[in-house]
Write a sequence for this structure.
């Protein structure tokens, strides 16, 4: 069974960012996940607009931009102007007064619209948006920091979303504490892709290509 793997670049070695991107590309990564945090919507600061622009300039692989910022509509143009058609932009519905307007701006720019759903966000609260977007990023941890533990109750939310995805025509992606056992369980059930951070990919002292090959060779 084929599934997508995207690298959480907030976990990369920023002292050697070009080499990190090249090594991940050569290793077979499908896309690069860019976590933008403003210190307001989440308490942490992570990657910046310039980090995103740099990675966009050194790779032809798609970018997966996760905006953890308040009121993204007020500055969405800054991000869209630096991306390519076919890149994905996720917003958090709670961060916006009118999230459907922000999603329409992403669509009009030729990007793939997505929403990120926090552990405490109900499926009911985003139901209408599920007909607008093409991707749902399910947060299995609270957003803002790498290295957190999986929150088990998120599994029931994923089950509900999997039951809706065919009718509403979206794909489901996993973000946070992504371990091999989660891929083994949820890829066969229909989760399309997984964001890889410190749990599986970064800081392991092994070539990225070896790690990614092992993940793709999991016996699903």
């Amino acid at each position: 069974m084929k599934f997508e793997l995207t690298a959480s670049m907030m976990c990369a070695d920023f002292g050697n960012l070009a080499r990190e991107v090249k090594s991940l590309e050569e290793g077979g990564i499908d896309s690069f996940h860019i976590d933008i945090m403003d210190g307001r919507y989440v308490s942490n600061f992570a990657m910046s607009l310039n980090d995103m622009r740099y990675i966009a300039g050194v790779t032809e692989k798609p970018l997966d931009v996760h905006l953890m910022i308040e009121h993204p509509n007020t500055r969405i143009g800054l991000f869209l102007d630096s991306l390519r058609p076919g890149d994905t932009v996720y917003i958090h519905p709670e961060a916006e007064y009118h999230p459907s307007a922000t999603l329409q701006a992403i669509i009009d720019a030729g990007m793939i619209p997505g929403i990120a759903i926090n552990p405490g966000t109900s499926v009911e609260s985003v139901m209408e948006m599920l007909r607008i977007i093409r991707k749902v990023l399910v947060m299995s941890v609270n957003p803002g920091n790498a290295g957190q533990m999986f929150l088990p109750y998120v599994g029931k939310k994923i089950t509900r979303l999997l039951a809706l995805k065919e009718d509403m025509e979206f794909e489901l992606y996993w973000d946070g504490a992504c371990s091999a056992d989660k891929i083994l369980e949820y890829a066969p059930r229909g989760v399309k892709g997984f964001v890889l951070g410190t749990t599986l990919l970064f800081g392991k002292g092994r070539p990225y290509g070896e790690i990614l090959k092992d993940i793709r060779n999991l016996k699903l």
